Amino acid sequence: MNVTSEPPNTSNELGAIEKKTFCGICEATCGLIASVINDRVVSIKPDPDHPSSRGFACSKGVQFHEIAADPDRVLYPMRRLADGSFARASWDEALDDIGRRLNAIRREHGSGSIGVAYGNPVAWNYAGGIATNGLATVLGTKHHYSSASVDINNYFAVGDMLYGSTMANPLPDYASTDFALLVGTNPLVSKGSLVTTGRIRDVLVDIKARGGRVVVVDPRRTETARLFDHVPILPNADPWLLGAMLRVLFDDDLVDWKKIREQTTGVEQLRQLAAKFDLDRAARESGVGVGTITELAHALAAAPRACVHGRCGASLGQYSTLTKFLLDALGIVTGNLDRRGGLVFGEPMADLDAVGAKSGGFHRNHWRTRVHGVGELNGTAPMACLAEEITTPGNGKLRALIGLSSNLVTSSPASTKTADALDQLDLMVWLDPYVTETSKHAHWILPPALWLEREQMPIFTQSQALIPHAQWVAPVVTPRGEARDDAWIIDQIARRMGILPLPLPGGQLLAKVGIRIKPHVMVDLVMRTGKHGDLFGLRRRGLSRKRLLATQGAVKLAEQCPVDVLKDKIFTKDRRVHLGQAEMLAEVDRVVASDAVDPRYPLRLFSIRELRSHNTWMHNVPRLMAGDRRCHAVVCPADATAAGVHDRDLVTVTSPWGQIDVPVVVSDEVMAGTVGLTHGFGHSGGWRRAVAAGGANYNVLTPSDPDLIDHPSGNAFFNGIPVAVTATVAP
Ligand SMILES: Nc1nc2c(c(=O)[nH]1)N[C@H]1C(S)=C(S)[C@@H](COP(=O)(O)OP(=O)(O)OC[C@H]3O[C@@H](n4cnc5c(=O)[nH]c(N)nc54)[C@H](O)[C@@H]3O)O[C@H]1N2
Ligand SMILES: Nc1nc2c(c(=O)[nH]1)N[C@H]1C(S)=C(S)[C@@H](COP(=O)(O)OP(=O)(O)OC[C@H]3O[C@@H](n4cnc5c(=O)[nH]c(N)nc54)[C@H](O)[C@@H]3O)O[C@H]1N2
Ligand code: SF4
Ligand SMILES: [Mo]
Question: Best substitution site from 20, 22, 26 to test ligand 3's pocket, by max atoms within 8 Å of Cβ?
Fold first, then answer.
């Protein structure tokens, strides 16, 4: 790997300065070139030289300057008035008031009554994320809520069980595989998740082009499923399919005993777990026939190099840790772990995951939540528990909440309950560029800089890139108005409490003598002393923040992820993969004992993502909302007839936990017995176009009862919600 400094930012024919950066919206983390005139981004285009995205960017990335310039954007600290409206204040007024109130709450109720919450965009905000984690760590609070618990907690739990660290997670080596089994992921739209590769459509199409096979297991004939072999499945039934496949592998002696002996322990327990899946019942429960289950297992075993990958469809059912465990188990027992074209481990620019794993920074079940005793994961409690922690009286009740980049009223379970609970907080401070259905509940909304306006390194996606690369970029433009870095805002709030928000042992002591270590120093230190680092000058062409900031674009670290590295990449004491997991056996027993369908709610609901939406927050951009874009449900013709509804009708979707009205599309792209629903809609607050887009909030229909979410990880239960669809009766 070479780092060479190219000439700094170049200017184009219009006199605009061109600056290379990377997109901070989704996990593809595409390389971009922003054209800047007078400190304003006027256009964004893909970077053809980026080693991963190679000239690709989607409509969201190249429109992002419209968000930065959005007239509805919050640009100043805003105080909520008695009538619910917001009035501009100065930073000093805001921070002094927040500090005073936090200190009063702390004196009276202790640090444990103060909480933090963050959502998805923190994954592209290394400094903001470190500062917020630091604040929670130093406060020693259990009230630490992360969107990982509505997304990927099941991955963390499986990492902990199989590989000895919540952060250890193998990646599907798409570029060299012969067979890819995709379960509950739609990369043509999402651009990939928990795997980072630019041009993912091309990467997958290439598998087929070189004679390989891609199988897509999904209740909907998605954009991805249309290109490959589609296996429709009922939502929330993945453990049945995957468990039955595992059973076939053992029963038909298709497993790779040599690799199992080399790499793992506990295979006998895994075999016993698989034996609990009856094939005929699996077929009934999942809607996938015994013939298909058997054929898939045989194909997976027969492929010279095969990989498996699951995402939201496999992560947001009721037994999501078991689902992910079974998926990995399929890859492992067929000998595909740590093999080219199989499941491989990433090569990050700064191996924070390894440092965290070795220093005990990542864990599971070290403590339990106050109200329902749900186990923590990486020091965080599930979003599903947030409302009850606010509303349940007693010691340790959550009284003050500081949140950033989270629209949890829309993105977390039991939205109505959550929204009501927020109003009971003594103090709510929210860092968000918009007055959203969440931030509108806050006493203070503080204006964050957006990713074009802050320094960035890809803290989250660096360890999951299939083409390992390094990039660290300076802000492209200065923040608009009085917006400030999230990290700066958190630091200022913490200062008012006499805290340095850094999750570093010894950090507080140093701060007391005036040495305040900043997040970039921490990450730079890990990078410089790591495999690709400059070792403070000892390695002449190695990485450092300074050198990367001076470099235009990204630096390729390797052509592909390494193989034969298992012992360096996992953290179990014996450096083996632990297949024998009593907790998973217990989960299988729960699945096997699960109830039959309640006839009042005969259909199963699942979530749909769209290309021009991003979770809950891209509905205010005119060009992304062009055309007839609406929140909608999708049912198949037979289910529509049974419910007496027609294409474009307004329908009422009812679950045991809530009810919403949405327009319906009748289409055979969804499997019979299921209802697809776009999520992330139903806005209120000050983002006018998003509010005007209408629609309803999916998560009004989802439960927060801790018994109903995934037990081992606390991950939310969104897909497979029992529902009924009826024609909406006019009021
Ligand atoms: N029913 C259902 N619910 C789901 C899902 C599903 O599939 N179905 N998916 C889940 C998943 S995977 C996720 S990740 C979550 C996502 O949901 P959230 O975690 O809530 O994240 P987003 O909706 O992406 O954005 C949250 C907020 O961040 C603000 N924001 C954007 N950039 C910045 C920034 O730089 N700084 C600050 N301070 N704020 C910023 C935006 O204005 C927005 O209000 O939703 C989950 N909810
Ligand atoms: N355009 C766009 N891109 C995004 C996002 C976005 O909102 N818009 N969000 C980003 C985020 S935060 C994330 S986490 C990723 C998610 O990345 P993905 O998981 O790849 O994206 P989804 O579109 O949610 O794909 C999940 C698929 O699972 C299917 N599914 C639902 N329930 C089940 C089930 O029970 N079993 C199975 N087998 N399948 C099921 C759905 O039909 C859907 O096709 O995308 C990221 N990228
Ligand atoms: S695919 Fe994702 S990372 Fe790439 S430009 Fe679009 S939103 Fe940004
Ligand atoms: Mo996500």
Answer: 26
What phi, psi does 115 have (nearest 5°)?
A: -130, 165
CA distance 381 to 265: 30
Report CA(27)–ligand 4 centroid distance (Å). 9
Q: Which amino acid is at 239?
A: P
Report CA(23)–ligand 3 centroid distance (Å): 6
Are 227 and 213 in contact, with CB atoms under 8 Å apart? no
Q: Whose CA is nearest to atom 44 of ligand 2?
A: 186
Q: Are 149 and 380 in contact (CB under 8 A)?
A: yes
Cα distance from N-terminal residue to C-terminal residue, the chain? 66
* Cα–Cα distance measured from residue 113 to residue 99, given in angstroms and rounded to the nearest whole number: 15
| Threshold 0.85, pTM exceeds | yes
Above 70 in pLDDT, residue 451?
A: yes
Three-state secondary structure call for residue 359: coil
88: nearest Cα among 550, 701, 686, 501: 686
Residue 393: Cβ-neighbour burial (10 angstroms; 0-12, 13-18, 19+): exposed
Report which bound ligand comes closest to the CA of 317.
Answer: 2
**Mean per-residue pLDDT for 661-676?**
98
What the block records as the tokens of 535 is: 């070792």
pLDDT category at 122 given cuts 50, 70, 90 is: very high
For residues 629-658, average pLDDT: 97
pLDDT at 730: 76
